[in-house]
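Typical record is below.
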Amino acid sequence: MDISTPQSITGSTQLASAGGVFITPVYLYADPVENLEAVTKHYVDDKATFIPAGNVGGGLFDVSLFPAYSGDVVSDAGSGVLSLEPTGVAAGDYTKVIVNGKGLVTGGGSITPDDLPTLSWLKINKDHPTTLDGYQIVDGVRKSGDTVSGYVTLTVIPTDDLHAITKTYVDTLSDTGDSLDVGDVSRRAGTVAPTGYLVCDGSLKNISDYPELYAVIGSNYGAATETEFLIPDFRSHNLPGFSYCIKAKNY
């Protein structure tokens, strides 16, 4: 049989140096190791399916070689179409988003006051407003003085000298005493007690002059004699321009 040129070999286990044609599959012992070894189909398929990125210098891949993907990106084998799996966040505009370690948006919402850090004004020392106008506040009152066109309502009882006072406070001070009982103490404007009142200065009074008052306070603030008694001394509690007075008689 002439095998000087490639041809089919039937019933022979040898090939000529010029080559030949096998009519049945040829099985190799293993995947190749050396550069000049014959390669198996497994070796080729594996290389075509899993191509190291470092070995790709350019060019185009046949789409049919693309494998299937699953996970955040999905694709069918040989499809060439990559799709991102939904993260559950509806499309829209958000002022606050949550991004996972892969850079995918997994949550969205709106910024709330709790999202803003506490920042002391002492740390802002440049280009910050210094007036109400600068803050675009149109309903404020300047510390240097201003005009209020409406009512100012106070919610606390004045106690300090510089506190603003309420109408109730003034009305109480200007009360003629008709609504108070003998022995009641009220704070009055001025240092002179109105009719029926005594300034609470700790002085001695005759029992016979103020029997109604003595019947109420007796010797609670000290008894000097059998015919005299002491009224309370609240001078240390007076505000400038005011005095405490005790009602001594009914009129």
Remarks:
- Residues 167-247 form a domain with the heat- and protease-stable fragment of the bacteriophage t4 short fibre, domain 3 fold (CATH 3.90.1340).
- Residues 1-9 have pLDDT under 50 and may be disordered.
- The radius of gyration is 52 Å.
- Residues 176 and 194 are 8 Å apart (CA to CA).
